[in-house]
Specification:
The protein is of the alpha+beta class. It folds into two domains: about 120 residues, MutM-like, N-terminal (N-terminal domain of MutM-like DNA repair proteins, Alpha-Beta Barrel), CATH 3.20.190.10; about 120 residues, Helicase, Ruva Protein, domain 3 (Orthogonal Bundle). It is built from six helices and ten strands. The strands form three sheets. Strands 1-6-7-5 form a four-stranded antiparallel beta sheet, with helices on one face. A four-stranded antiparallel beta sheet has the order 2-3-4-8, covered by helices on one side. It has a two-stranded antiparallel sheet with strand order 9-10. α3 packs across α6.
Length: about 280
């Protein structure tokens, strides 16, 4: 599931392929934009904002995309075989003389005026990997609703932008708190350390193809996707349960020994929920 680090990687991939070049192909495969033709226009840049991608195009236009859970951008040579998925999953194709960018399974695809970008990203909190990063503001945003569980607060992109379900689980483990702890119950030391720790994790992984929070070759992650395997610190079985606001639930992993505190309302399980390294509640 894409999070701030992998979205930034996607932006870099697209920027290297398209920026400064004239579009020779424009193919929108969604009804709303079926007649749009951007050929002949130059792509200025591709900018990530939290988990959003902003592709700015000559004529004051921005293509706004969001990958959500399983969307992706792939770049191919003009005569290369497209391997990102079946053709019916393609939402947009942008091509230049030497590269073709194909957007697969994009749940958010919107063409808007560049001057109106704030309409789609203006609600976001400080971007962990962006030039607007402000740790004090991020901390204050997180603490603004003291009764909210830490895990939910981290996923709310209005607080700080770029954290998804993987980093939520890993951050709570590294802090030594359960994701269901009310954020107002964090010690002053932990509340102060949280934004800096989040930034450090994303920065360490911004150029990695495989996320790593443990500093080991394997396993790469402390808790995410590891139920019911033993905790790397204490050997207790990692647990998994759903967490969310009722409208959007996400699997959450934690060690009940290393992360004492409130447990989820529903009974947790030691059985696998999903495994492996997915690269994404959120108000996105």
């Amino acid at each position: 599931m894409p999070e701030g680090d992998s979205v930034r990687q996607a932006a870099r991939l697209l920027h290297d392929a398209l920026a400064g070049k004239v579009l020779t192909r424009s193919d929108f495969r969604v009804p709303q934009y079926a007649t749009v033709d951007l050929t002949g226009r130059t792509v200025h840049d591709i900018t990530p904002r939290g988990k959003h991608l902003l592709t700015r195009i000559e004529g004051g236009l921005t293509l706004h995309t969001h990958l959500r859970m399983d969307g992706s951008w792939k770049v191919f040579a003009p005569d290369g075989r497209w391997t990102g998925g079946p053709a019916h999953q393609i939402r947009v194709v942008l091509g230049t003389a030497d590269r073709t960018a194909v957007g697969y399974r994009l749940p958010v695809l919107e063409l808007l005026r560049t001057a109106d970008e704030q309409r789609v990203v203006g609600h976001l909190g400080p971007d962990l990997l962006g030039p607007d990063w402000d740790p004090e503001r991020a901390r204050d945003n997180l603490l603004a609703d003291p009764a909210r569980p830490v895990g939910e607060a981290l996923l709310d992109q209005r607080n700080l932008a770029g954290i998804g379900n993987v980093y939520k689980s890993e951050l709570c483990f590294l802090l030594g708190v359960t994701p269901w702890l009310p954020v107002g119950d964090l010690s002053a030391e932990r509340a102060e350390a949280l934004p800096a720790l989040a930034k450090r994790l994303l920065e360490a992984n911004r150029d990695r193809l495989v996320r790593n929070t443990t500093g080991r070759r394997a396993p790469e992650l402390f808790v995410y996707g590891r139920a019911p395997r033993p905790c790397l610190r204490c050997s207790t079985s990692i647990r998994v349960s759903e967490q969310g606001d009722g409208s959007r639930e996400r699997p959450t992993y934690w060690c009940p020994a290393c992360q004492p505190g409130p447990a989820p309302a529903r009974r947790p399980t030691s059985a696998p929920h999903d495994v492996g390294q997915s690269r994404s509640r959120s108000t996105d």
